[in-house]
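The following block was generated as part of the benchmark described in Methods. Ligand: hexanoyl-coenzyme A.
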Amino acid sequence: MESPFKPEILKGKVALLTGGASGIGYEISTQFGKHGASIALMGRRKTVVDSAVSSLHALGIPAVGFAGDVRKQEDAKRVVESTIERFGKIDILVNAAAGNFLVSPEDLSPNGFRTVMDIDSVGTFTMCHEAINYLKKGGPGRSPDDSGGIILNISATLHYTASWYQIHVAAAKAAVDAITRNLALEWGTDYDIRVNGIAPGPINDTAGMRKLGPDEIKSKTREIMPLFKLGEKWDIAVAALYLASDAGKYVNGTTLVVDGGLWLSRPRH
Ligand code: HXC
């Protein structure tokens, strides 16, 4: 679909995306690149990262990829520093890496719970922690009249109510939203950094949909969804463009729900 935004809205910006080599993260990488940004990708699987970088290059987008796990602080530090070495600065950090599987609480081991918390919540904080020096106004690579950088955290809506077999993910995403608000307050005030989130609904052709029962959701879609359809990765990417560009310059500490109204809807009866 054609972009509603001008192609230069992120011109000269550098974006680092965790989980940026596949799914929603890759679509955000692509749209950021198409709107002028240089892209650094971080992902656990080197082959997936390499192939995503090749695809971005084929679109004429400057891109580099690094294999790394957000659960390892040394990986986060190395990827941030390698991005600086390659592109000289970081303007936008997108935390899109996530873990997910369906399991009942009684079958979920504490280590399984911890694993998802480690990826989604601690991983998000770790990346922010390692990148702060470069994101802050006046930080290395930033010109004096640049504002501070932007952080975007990919969240979910499942913790607004309660979701079957998702206790670990709900807890992890609730923590992500708390990180978004607290960093927006403290780093917005001290460093002119904007921190926001996006909470996608069910998005077609993603690992989340494949894992969370696409057939059931598709067959009930018309009954429960006000807009009668699944979202596209594009819908999330253009929301990210809005928040990362000057269009969102007064938006800080919010998590934008992009779900067609699903989370607040009830079946018609
Ligand atoms: C029960 C499981 C499990 C499963 C792992 N564990 N998978 N428990 N059911 N299906 C438990 C293990 O038993 C182990 O605990 C602990 O978790 C760690 O497992 P490992 O396999 O050692 O971990 P790791 O290899 O690091 O893999 C973690 C992973 C990850 C979370 C499973 O590989 C993963 O999810 N990858 C897919 C990424 C993904 O799908 N991303 C899209 C997310 S979509 P014990 O006690 O045995 O040691 C999304 C949408 C959310 O986030 C919103 C939806 C509405």
